[in-house]
Amino acid sequence: MAEEQTAAQKLLGDFAPELVRLTDDVLFGEVWASEGLSQRDRSLITVATLVALYRADQLAFHLPKALENGVTKNELVEAITHIAFYAGWPNAMSAITQLKNIVEGADAS
């Protein structure tokens, strides 16, 4: 049976194989697997960074991943609200809207 493709493989496939390999093997295979921080903490840090840098495309992957890794909806709401004062209101409003859509979509299923 064939292995399921990673998100990077689905997104970039053969278009950028080296970037896919680095994403899968180094970023998620080594950095995210390091024992220095929990998956939960890594998710919270990653979401905070993506909100601050206004990386909405990446949030679409990392907000659900944070929920899977044990960060609660309320913790994400609090973090995004806090970030609004340091990284800008538009960044926070965009992120909170994405989170709301993700949570409401999960609740509907």
Summarize the structure in words.
By secondary structure, the chain is mainly α. The chain contains 6 helices and no strands. It has helices at 7-12, 17-31, 39-52, 56-68, 73-87, 89-108. It is globular. The model has no long low-confidence stretch (mean pLDDT 94).
Outline the fold blueprint.
Layout: H1 7-12, H2 17-31, H3 39-52, H4 56-68, H5 73-87, H6 89-108
Shape, per Cα inertia axes: globular
Number of E strands? 0
Spans where pLDDT lies below 50 across 5 or more residues: none
Query: By helix and strand content, what is the structural category?
Result: mainly alpha
Q: Tell me the distance between the termini.
A: 28 Å
Radius of gyration, rounded? 15 Å
Q: Element order, helices and strands?
A: HHHHHH
Helix content: over 70%
The biggest sheet, with number of strands, parallel, antiparallel or mixed sense and barrel status, is: none
Organism: Streptomyces justiciae
Protein name: Carboxymuconolactone decarboxylase family protein
Domain Carboxymuconolactone decarboxylase-like: 17-99
Short key terms for the protein model shown above:
single chain, 109 residues, mainly alpha, 6 helices
Short note summarizing the structure:
The chain is mostly helical and 109 residues long. The chain is built from 6 helices and no strands. The relative contact order is 0.11.
